[in-house]
Structures
1.
Amino acid sequence: MRNELKNARRIVIKIGTSTLLYDNGTVNLRLIDELAFTITNLMNEGVEVILVTSGAIGVAMGQLRLKTRPREVERQQALAAIGQAELMNIYKQRFNAYTQHVAQVLLTRDVVDYETSRENVSNTLNALLDLGVLAIINENDTVSIDELDHNTAFGDNDTLSVIVSIVANADLLIILSDVDGFYDKNPGDFADAKKYDKITEITPELLNQAGGAGTNVGTGGMLSKLTAAETLLKNDGKLVIALGEDPKIINEILSGENVGTLFAKG
Ligand code: ADP
């Protein structure tokens, strides 16, 4: 049992592209619907939730029936702009079905570097939580050229979700992925890979065990999750990486059950 997670009152949930989309690039509506139900129910219980979503480029690729992700940064930015509208449309529709209002927040990573912008973001997130509205956050890809470029190798929204957790002073970050935790080697490639239950420190050895994304829609892979986890641990945050295919796993995590991999000091 992980009793320390039972008191989490403010949580950030990050959902990855490979969980949101089927391998053929279409949107997993069942998953978004169950995520909307689970999060709304938690918010009704009084847990404060912020959602960080990836998937805008993937959704646009599905809409435009593109088979491969374009290499040109401006094309990726255009796709992000197209897909973001559709993604929010789907979220809004599913959350509204459970009477939960949502808001779109687009951020760049450097918000933490400037005190004023950091405060503005923190105030907005607090105000949204006060209003009982779910903030759905994504990277503002139109301005984040560096990030998009970076994305093709490591990025996704793992780092963004850590930044949001720090700025919002969250008790816990949950990264929902297409894998049920962090293993000593990529479980997609090695049948004998072993899952870690808890990690207290990111060591060079662990970084070596993390590989890239396993799918052509996922962009981050484990390396980006581990480096993000390192920043969170330095800020005394907690992170669980868990399998997102059934969003009810969020309830199991908050009940202290040993699912996924926990990153926490001590
Ligand atoms: P997401 O879209 O959720 O961010 P990614 O596809 O970017 O997901 O990252 C998860 C993938 O990372 C897994 O499906 C797996 O193929 C790969 N991976 C590489 N190394 C590891 C490891 N050591 N443990 C678990 N998964 C790993």
Note: The beta strands are 10-15, 48-53, 102-107, 134-139, 172-177, 198-199, 239-243, 261-263.
2.
Amino acid sequence: MKHEQSNTYFSQAKQVIPGGVNSPVRAFTSVGCNPLFIEKSAGSRIYDADNQSYIDYVGSWGPMILGHCHPKVVEAIQNAASCGASFGAPTYKEIELANLVCEAYPNIEKVRMVSSGTEATMSAIRLARGCTGRDKILKFNGCYHGHADSLLVKAGSGAATFGVPTSPGIPAEVAKYTLTATYNDLVDVKSIVALNKDEIACIILEPIAGNMGCVPPATGFLQGLRDLCTAEGIVLIVDEVMTGFRVAYGGAQERFNVRGDLVCLGKIIGGGLPVGAFGGKKELMDQLSPEGGVYQAGTLSGNPLAMSAGIATLKLLKEEGFYQQIEEKSAFLEAGLALTSDTEAFSRYFRSMLDSGINLAPSQFEAGFMSIAHSQEDLEQTIEAAARALTGL
Ligand code: HOZ
């Protein structure tokens, strides 16, 4: 495929935007070609600036579980926009979305809306520190929780793609409070906790790791963390920004029946608009300002457009059989694909798939995202393209 217009835009973008992109992995650096500039989307497809269409498995990195431009979500956003884009004051829509979230996650009694997943994890950590009076946090190597200073240590995904374990710009004084353990290794976690007795405010994790490839939790790992946190007075933060409303309506916590003290959400709850959220038991959440002393705020928090898109999306996800259908589509695709963990080979595979009109995440460390709008024909076309791409490797 020809990418003349995208290439022209990329040259222009590089003049005024660092690296030509507003989020590093979008630059396609690790797959050896220039990024596509997207003009529009519909259902399972996105259309680039050269008017070529692609079956999309990025789905804006997770939010587009209904596919692009679902008419009910578009309508909700249009209606909200016609009443005003932002007020910096509470609206009824915030209560509506909060109720939907609390119904779906029994351990969320109160939830606060923010504008991104990064804000959600950053705020949850501040709350955990404020509640426990402890400074250290424990995260897992390869788990990504956004780009707040204390979380950008051994962060997988973008950082792994660019070979940067910890970003410059993070003071050693800050990074020293972030302890890191091996994912799925409870023995490692226990020994770190023992070495830092009564000093760890929280353990934060992706309940299914999705930024070092897709790594499910080992049997007993989540429950082991739950028990350890309860015994040691550590706040367990389950980062469901990617998995929430994705792997089940109630996220990974519903699937594995293990509950965090605090939960971070994002992506799907904004229906494609910028949203994050963190919530948990009242006793913890009520320590947030203005009720408590832990400060957290945001001009666009609870934005009415974002709330409307989120409400419309969650209502559609509640429809009978939704998750079964998504599972079936994903299983069909998975069975038809062979996977590779060779970065060079992945980069050739990625380019060949793109040539065949299939848009994958431009890094082998990232997850792919299915939507309900992907048709059987889309899936078969993807499997055929993959077979061709793999033969050529
Ligand atoms: N946080 C995403 C990677 N896991 C990238 C988001 C984006 O570039 O839009």
Note: The chain is about 40% helix and 15% strand.
